[in-house]
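Workshop exercise sheet. Pairs work together: one partner reads the sequence aloud, the other fills in the structure field after running the prediction. Swap roles for the next sheet.
Pair: D.N. / O.F.
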Amino acid sequence: MDAAALDALIDELSDVGDPLADALVEELAAHPQQRTLLERGLREGREALGEPPGPALTAFLAELEDLTAAAPDDLLERASLPHFTISPAEHVLDLGAAALIHSYAPPRTAAVLVGTGELTGRALERVTDTGRWNAAALVPGWLRRGEPGYVATAQVRLVHARVRRSVRRAAGDAGPVPLHQVDLARTWLDFTLVTMRADAALGLDLTGAEENSLYAYWQHLGRLLGIDRRLLVGAVDRAGAELLAERIAAVTGPPSEDSRHLTRAGLDALAGALADLTPAPRRLAGPMVRAACRAMLGDELADQLGVPRSAAAAAALRPLVALTRLRRRLLRRDAVAWERLVRANVEATRAFALDGGPTGFAGPTGFAR
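Structure field:
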């Protein structure tokens, strides 16, 4: 799809939500007893339901199950493995200080997020929940029907629909649809293109084949999240993702004060998480997280988001990046050690995703149930 066709599609989908999820949320509001059927259907499938579900629930489950049945086994079991060449502690930075902070930049999305109060009042909890959803969605095999990533992703999709319903009702159904298809595609880019660029900035480079494998996995995950396939069809590699990001950026305003408010809360929460997950002293965690954020997002966007500059922290980060890149390059030479690293990171991620159960799965935009 060329830029002109993509621009036309973005214009078309800038006031479209997720019809299947939106219809299901309305149906659940009218018939709350169907919530039990929803939970069972997600975990056991439509055939396990003891009574006929409503039409919206039937359509929602059918799409999820059909998409999952059509996905190749190799994609479900192996395509996400490049994600696990990076440790969960390192993903605190690329997913948190890059992807999540980048998702705060669009002013309309930031206004909705601030309006919920979730990310500013309970930032660490919500950042952790977002990481837990991401972990569950990427564990190999966990996007099969009934598995934790499949269930969590369906719940995230419904969270977005509930937010759309709540915001539209509060506005009297006036104004544009919040969290529309282009917003969802933008967030998809945060967890693909932005994250992979961030990895490279920290010395956690992926090969071209590894990146393409993750794009293939996220193509499927994007469909499960209810994103119109036409928006993602060309984003099968970095070049395609960059074109999509460029055209979406052309219709997105600059970061707002809401964006900066969310950024401050998010970075403070991430600094606390980094101090808990690594040997980094708490007094150094904040400056290092902010320096990493600037390195991953670039100075122009970091300035717009109000991320403070620190020459000392930036200078301290540079040798760490070089050392990380060297260590990674040497480790790749030992296939056994590399495979051991991936397996260990898969197990650590699986444990994190299941640890005590989430207080409320958060989707790519950070909303919680």
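Discussion prompt: The two ends are 36 Å apart (CA to CA). What would you look at next?
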